[in-house]
Amino acid sequence: MDVSIKAPAKINLTLDVLHKRDDGYHELEMVMTTIDLADRIDLTEKAAGGIQLESSSGFVPFDDRNLAYRAAQLIKGRFNINKGVHIKIDKKIPVAAGLAGGSSDAAATLKGLNQLWQLGLNLEELAELGVELGSDVPFCVLGGTAIAQGRGERLTPLPPPPPCWVILAKPPHGVSTAEVFGAFRQEKVEKRPQLEQMEAALAAGDFHGICQGLSNVLESVTLDQYPKVRLMKEKMQRFGAPGVLMSGSGPTVFSLVEQENAARRVVNSLRGFCRQVYAVRILGGLGEPNRLE
Ligand code: C5P
C-alpha cells in the first residue's frame, strides 16, 4: 500500500521570546499559518524492516539526521512495527529557511504512517508524538492558523488571514535555529508582537491590521548577523508590500499582498536580486488560484 501526503510550509505572523527555560529551550508565543508551498511525502510499505529515504533534493540528509526518518523510527519503536517503509520526499520548501520544511515532512510522515499502519491515532496524539521530534512539528500536524505557546507545542486555533498572496524571498544561505536562539538577547529587541492585536485582526479579517501586527523578535539576531536579509526586507518594503517580516529564525523574508497585480510587481522587482522567490496563497481559502503563473 502507498500513502501520499502534502507537507506545507508555515510562516510566522508573530514570534515573541518570553524567557529562557531551565531545560534550555525558550518560552515562545507565536502566531503561525500554513501556506501553499509544500513538499510531498510518498510512503511505501516494505516487508523488510528498514527505513529508506529518497529525496528530490541534494540538501536533505538520508539518515536519522532527517526529521522524516526520525518520525518513522519513532512510530516503529513506539508501536512495535516490524515492517519497513520507503519514504520519498519531493522537496519544494527551501531547507533551513525558517519555514518548518523539515518539521512539516516529519508531521506528514507521522500522519502517513498512522494511515499506512492503521494505528488509529487522532491529530492530538500525533501532535504529542511530534513534539519529541521538534518544537514546530505539533503545529505542522495540525496546520491552519494558530497561536503556539510553550516550546511551540501548545496550540490554539485561530481563523486564517483573509485571502492574499504570500511572496517569499529566500537568501542563498541557511540559518541554524539553535544558533539564532543562542544569540538572542532581550535587550536588543526594539519592537514586540502584540498578540491580542493580531488575534483581533484575524478575527475581523482585517488585512491591514494583520500587516501592521507582523512582528518577530528573532529579527534582532538574524538581520544583524546577515545584512543581506535586512536588505531583502528593505527592498520588499520599498517595492510597496504593505506587510514584510522574517519567518521563524530566518532567513526567509515574506510579504503579504492583497491584489494580484501588486503581488506580481513585488515578485518582478525581487527577481534580479534573489534567485529563490515564491508567490503562494495562505492555505485555507478554497477555490482560489494558488500560484502566480
Ligand atoms: O525543537 P527543535 O529541535 O526544532 O529546536 C531547535 C533548536 O532551537 C533547539 O535546540 C533550541 O536551541 C532552539 N529552540 C529554543 N526554544 C524553542 C524552540 C527551539 O531555544 N522553543
Describe the protein's architecture and organization:
With 293 residues, the protein is an alpha+beta fold. It has two domains: 2-158, Ribosomal Protein S5, domain 2; 165-281, GHMP kinase, C-terminal domain (Alpha-Beta Plaits), CATH 3.30.70.890. The protein is built from ten helices and eleven strands. The strands form two sheets. Strands 1, 2, 3, 4, 5, 6 and 8 form a seven-stranded mixed sheet that branches. A four-stranded antiparallel sheet has the order 9-10-7-11. A hairpin with a 5-residue loop joins β1 (2-20) and β2. α8 (219-225) crosses α9. The radius of gyration is 19 Å and the shape is globular. It starts with a strand and ends in a 12-residue tail after the last strand. Bound molecules: cytidine-5'-monophosphate (C5P). Keywords: ATP-binding, Isoprene biosynthesis, Kinase, Nucleotide-binding, Transferase. Its EC number is 2.7.1.148. Residues 66-144 form the GHMP kinase N-terminal domain.
Please describe the topology of this protein.
Layout: E1 2-20, E2 26-46, E3 51-55, H1 67-78, E4 84-90, H2 101-116, H3 123-130, H4 137-142, E5 145-150, E6 154-158, E7 165-170, H5 177-183, H6 195-204, H7 207-213, E8 215-216, H8 219-225, H9 227-238, E9 243-246, E10 253-257, H10 260-271, E11 276-281
Parallel strand pairs: 1-8, 3-4
Antiparallel strand pairs: 1-2, 2-4, 2-5, 5-6, 7-10, 7-11, 9-10
Helix pairs in contact: 1-2, 2-3, 6-7, 8-9
Cytidine-5'-monophosphate (C5P) binds next to strand 2 and helix 5.
